[in-house]
Amino acid sequence: MKTQSGIDLSSYRSEGFIGRYQRLIKDTVIPYQYSVLCDKAKGAEKSHVIQNFINAAKAVRGEDVGDGFYGMVFQDSDAAKWIEAAAYSLHRFPDKDLEVTVDGLIDIIANAQDEDGYLDTYFTVKDKDKRWKNLLEGHELYCSGHMMEAACAYYEATGKRKLLDVMLKNAAHIYDVFIKQAHEGCPGHPEVELGLMKMYRLTGDKKCLELAEHFINTRGTDPDFFRRERASRDWTVWENNAEDNSYQQSGVPLRQAENATGHAVRAVYLYTAMADLSSQNSDRELFEACRRLWNSITRKQMYITGGIGSTVLGEAFSVDYDLPSDTAYAETCASIGLMFFASRMLENEVRGEYADVMETAFYNTVLAGMQLDGKRFFYVNPLEVVPGISGVSPTHRHDLPERPQWYACACCPPNVARLISSLGKYAYGENGDTAFCHLFAGGSVKFRNGMSFTCKTAYPYGFDVTYDIKKGGRLAVRIPAWSGTYGVKLCGKEISPEIKDGYCYIDVADGDTVALTLDGSPRFAYASTKIPQLSGKTAVCRGPLVYCFEGADNGGDVLSISLVGGGKISAGEYDEALLCGTTKLTVQALRRTAGDSLYSFTAPDTAECEAVAVPYYTWGNRGVNQMRVWMDEKDSPIVRK
Amino acid sequence: MKTQSGIDLSSYRSEGFIGRYQRLIKDTVIPYQYSVLCDKAKGAEKSHVIQNFINAAKAVRGEDVGDGFYGMVFQDSDAAKWIEAAAYSLHRFPDKDLEVTVDGLIDIIANAQDEDGYLDTYFTVKDKDKRWKNLLEGHELYCSGHMMEAACAYYEATGKRKLLDVMLKNAAHIYDVFIKQAHEGCPGHPEVELGLMKMYRLTGDKKCLELAEHFINTRGTDPDFFRRERASRDWTVWENNAEDNSYQQSGVPLRQAENATGHAVRAVYLYTAMADLSSQNSDRELFEACRRLWNSITRKQMYITGGIGSTVLGEAFSVDYDLPSDTAYAETCASIGLMFFASRMLENEVRGEYADVMETAFYNTVLAGMQLDGKRFFYVNPLEVVPGISGVSPTHRHDLPERPQWYACACCPPNVARLISSLGKYAYGENGDTAFCHLFAGGSVKFRNGMSFTCKTAYPYGFDVTYDIKKGGRLAVRIPAWSGTYGVKLCGKEISPEIKDGYCYIDVADGDTVALTLDGSPRFAYASTKIPQLSGKTAVCRGPLVYCFEGADNGGDVLSISLVGGGKISAGEYDEALLCGTTKLTVQALRRTAGDSLYSFTAPDTAECEAVAVPYYTWGNRGVNQMRVWMDEKDSPIVRK
Fold first, then answer.
1. So what's the ipTM on this one?
2. How many CB atoms lie within 10 A of CB B596?
3. pTM above 0.90, yes or no
4. Residues 579-608 of B with CB under 8 A from A
């Protein structure tokens, strides 16, 4: 089963949980982020990104560049990701004012493009002679990739070609440089590869495909490239280690790669493009490499929350089974990239494990990246926070106990916005006559193959999912691996549909109703004993949600709580007023009474208690307090009687 | 009770466990380390320290400096610490050949002293004009301090004054610079203060006392000093952050200090000198500061092994209760410095807690710093090691699973050597008519007050300690806080002596025998629930020894083992052949069977087992394997029936 692809976004009208999030992006996040781009958001770090484009346009015209360039070398990408998010949002929430704003920004961007098609404000403003001379750190191709994604998204949403034409011209320029003139090397930060694939799929432009193939097929074939490039110039943008091929995934030809290594966002953006290309070209060898990399991530290097890249040093994958909770990096963008990778793997082969991971990453790390009001963001997603240590201890400075407003390096907030507003593409897919339901996302959906239905569900807090079929065909619904039991009814009658690789396949006719019931019972999770930090501990989950224990629900102290192994665990009523609507879990637990001394030879007093958990994605929304996902587990004398 | 001081080393003739270690230092460590100093040790990092002195002597004579200076800015101190260790060893093991070697080295060192008394090979060889212009990083005073300690030790051991005269001249030079010429500032790395105090106590030289007072009383009164000093020069030795007053304990006047901060070795060397000065001058205010700093370390920032300075970043104290096992720094030298500090606190007031900590640091972290054969050394002492992660993961690079031979920065190995060979000074003390037994160290001891006895014990593996009194008086023996029960017999008859602040006081006559019986039963230890990494875990101890679980005794895998809370724990027979003589502990435990997946929703199979522990100081002597001090603790269904 292959080459099934995401639906047109305009054909998914979200409701329910996903609907609320998409509305939040539209009402709060997109306007707020635009005000940041314009440097009009109070208290946010300076962006200057729009002014960078304006100043670059002056440089293109040979004029004085005013206050020049400000920000990270990849500042342009903030604008690109914002346009992309806005474009996705326009499908669900048409908005002429927003379109006018985007059109204006696109005009500004178009003016910043050089005559030859080059587009990057950092080098255009600062020094044109340095173009393409620092692929390691320069991020020119990275910024192009993001703008290509934006161009595709905006064209799909509005039919307006201006940015698409700008980026086709940009792609042609890159083609000239890297293919015709055979400029050597590949991007330090992968991203353009997946942007080029999107451009190719949308426009059929062969240069885009050829360029994506070029960057993927040559990467790692010359492990000395970045060192040579570094030696050839006497300047840097930021001091990146040119010889750390592991960091930039450039040490071995990608088709031979065995392990996911290095900067986690770079890795998953690259692997996404590899999977995209392998499905496009039915390239089995490339797909096998993707599968090895997928397994390396999801079977040895992933948090239970779908977080990846466990170490702050290089924002990177560490070694297998090194998954500390307290010093975790687990960047929001990396989990978004993991969703990209998962969705492209699904286009190669429909297997539940890809969608399972996609769902885990979405409902836990990605959503945790944003405050419930859409106004503050986490870049780093630890699985344990202890005020006084987190954000303060030298080794925990990156693990903040509360979300900051905006970052100087603002990759995560707009990434969350574009992911959520395009969720339909991840939730639904199709392949010939089959409609795929990868995620349980309420609302109405139409497929290119003619099928359509309305999905009704209170997911992730309700576990009944109903599909009211308007136009029938073949329906493929994922049965999540976490669901110990499940039931399927067709028009009220229990059926036992064919299950293949985690999906159940049902032929449906117009007017049918398919009702899926998943296992909504809370459950304990256990980690491999190969993970030193987690061996012997337990976590609690319900549906796709990993739960956590916060001080707010537990008398201010979760460190002294142990869960009773195999003890009682129960879900409360859904509380609309709590944390934008959630369900707490209550778990049988024991609390140790702490003495004053660091160490003692007397067993601490232990009392029975109930520990209360909330979904991980909601943590840090009630002020600074302790938070812990993985809990000590003790057997209980009461349970054992 | 105050101003009790360590005995003359020549009056302690060690036997038993301490005797073996002192012999190992004499037979193996001192010769090996000398071969390193001469660059004749195969496989060790280059030292060049003796050649540095030879080359500095050339510079003093105005000759070409040959191959110049090599090594760390504080390379001189390696020679100093070696002389000091050799000197202490000579008390126990007179050795004319060793004396000839030391004399030769002292001649070389003396030749490197400038006419004005300045002594530091780095600046003498490299650039005399830079003297005293980089107190932050230059380590001139640090090297002087160590050479002062060496000079005192060698004079005490042999009566030879040459190095003492060199260092008195050096002290006079420092006095000229910092007192007469009022050169501002204090040393970036404290050490000279305690060296000066030793010089003063030995020689009565008032300049030494005045200098120590000067550096202690002025430190921190001008928190801007290091920044100004940095701004005044256009060169660095290594790039130290001049504005990090916390790192170099220079942010507040020391008398006002509340918390132990920064580089742990710097901290405890400084606090040692403060405590030394407060006892010398009966300076109550200074002593109160020492007490606050002592409590800050031992009640909030110390590992159960007596390790301190938990973070690799700055080799420093972190924040309270941040005591990770796996990424611990816990430098060997810092625990040695903690013993110094404890011993000086005992000179201010006799309280068991000082000696308890001193004992814990010695028997666990300090001894762990050296391989049992005396040939390899740990700088860093983690409480958990997992091959594949430790020493490999970016955040665990410093936590090595086996001891290296010699370090470029070789502070720890010679520090271990001088500590062990001078152990008598820490074990025994006196005050007027009272002989203090702080540590249980077998062998014969004579006190200046005329008392003498022979201590017989198999400690730390036997818990009977007998004192055969030759010359009587008042005996004060510590009762360790860990000893739940104890008994004292005087000439075979049970007595209930006065106990004050952790010591029992007994009047003894010539020919008496005092027999102390301590609690040798193995015991569980528990950590405060304020320590996130340790809450809910348990460790096992016996006597002063913290135990650890190594793969070698536990089927290669300790991560899957949980101890049964309050379960059976038993000590085996003392095994002379094992790890240079040790006793294993066996603990009732459970082993989880690991599945292949990272996470699972099925409770892992758990089977009863026996976990075997060995003393922490012996770990890593049987090849690379897992090691863990703090274990998960589960209640057992069997125990609870």
1. 0.93
2. 8
3. yes
4. 592, 594-604
